[in-house]
């Protein structure tokens, strides 16, 4: 729950700023803000685990009960690459067509991540929190 609120708390202001600068005709600034926000979110998710293993209890690893973490991280990196390719094909212009493409990419990413985490796709059975 905390990671979801952290991601939403950092992404919503970045989205608003990206929309504002895109309306001013600065599409390159909006794109760099979008990609920078995604990279920041991915890097900051590992910070609590680093602090736990480096300073709090260096002798024990942090157990992460997520079977889809590697899949989700790789999917995020692929979605950033697809975003750059789609923007390049669109002539580095942000318009409704690119916005629709980005929305579709996000829906596909979120759907695949949820299905993988739930064990519906892939070879990962669903595990409970205590196991």
TrEMBL record:
Keywords: Antiport, Calcium, Calcium transport, Ion transport, Membrane, Potassium, Potassium transport, Signal, Sodium, Sodium transport, Symport, Transmembrane, Transmembrane helix, Transport
Signal peptide boundaries: none
Transmembrane segments: 30-51, 63-86, 98-116
GO annotation terms (biological process): intracellular calcium ion homeostasis; melanocyte differentiation
Gene3D superfamilies: NCX, central ion-binding region
Catalytic activity annotation: Ca(2+)(out) + K(+)(out) + 4 Na(+)(in) = Ca(2+)(in) + K(+)(in) + 4 Na(+)(out)
Record Pfam families: Na_Ca_ex (PF01699)
GO cellular component, as recorded: membrane; trans-Golgi network
Residues in Sodium/calcium exchanger membrane region domain copies: 1-114
Bilayer disposition of the protein: Multi-pass membrane protein
Predominant subcellular localization, coarse grouping: membrane
One MF annotation (Gene Ontology) recorded for this entry: calcium channel activity
PANTHER family, sorted: SODIUM/POTASSIUM/CALCIUM EXCHANGER, SODIUM_POTASSIUM_CALCIUM EXCHANGER 5
Family: Belongs to the Ca(2+):cation antiporter (CaCA) (TC 2.A.19) family. SLC24A subfamily.
Descriptive protein name: Sodium/calcium exchanger membrane region domain-containing protein
Organism: Silurus meridionalis (Southern catfish)
Record lineage: Eukaryota, Metazoa, Chordata, Craniata, Vertebrata
